[in-house]
């Protein structure tokens, strides 16, 4: 993966509260968004990489499920997360 350990810890600290809180939904969505952006850039160059395209679609679906859970749990937190990550919803 393209993220180093230090970058992951920074993302977990920003979205999860601490660098060891890797299980929070917000932190998982943030890491997944980074991976989705990386695979999207990869697919712009390698258009025929169908396995990467399939993994991208699976990841987007999983992120959507996580975001739906966050929205049901706390709508204000959901809106803040969408704003921070720059997702369109």
Folded structure, characterized:
The structure is a single chain. By secondary structure, this protein is an all-alpha fold. It has a single domain, classed as S15/NS1, RNA-binding (Helix Hairpins, Orthogonal Bundle), CATH 1.10.287.10. The chain is 76% helix and 0% strand. The chain contains four helices and no strands. The longest helix has 24 residues. It is globular, with a radius of gyration of 14 Å. The two termini are 27 Å apart. 16% of the residues are buried.
For this entry, give a set of tags:
89 residues; Helix Hairpins; mainly alpha
Predict the CATH topology: Helix Hairpins
So what's the CATH class?
Mainly Alpha
Domain count: 1
Fourth-level CATH superfamily: S15/NS1, RNA-binding
Biggest sheet, in brief? Answer: none
**Helicity level:** over 70%
Using only C-alpha atoms, the radius of gyration works out to: 14 Å
Total count of helical runs of at least 4 residues? 4
* CATH architectural category: Orthogonal Bundle
Described by the principal axes of the CA atoms, the overall outline is: globular
Distance between the termini: 27 Å
Count of β-strands: 0
Q: Which percent range describes the beta-strand content?
A: under 5%
Stretches where pLDDT is under 50 for at least 5 consecutive residues are none
Class inferred from helices and paired strands: mainly alpha
Mean pLDDT: 92
- Provide the succession of SSEs: HHHH
């Amino acid at each position: 993966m393209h993220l180093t350990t230090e970058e992951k810890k920074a993302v977990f600290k920003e979205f999860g509260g601490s660098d060891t809180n890797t299980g929070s939904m917000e932190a998982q969505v943030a890491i997944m968004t980074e991976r989705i952006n990386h695979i999207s850039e990869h697919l712009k160059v390698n258009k025929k990489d169908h396995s990467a395209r399939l993994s991208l679609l699976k990841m987007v679906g999983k992120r959507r499920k996580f975001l739906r859970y966050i929205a049901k749990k706390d709508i204000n937190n959901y809106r803040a997360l969408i704003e921070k990550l720059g997702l369109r919803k």
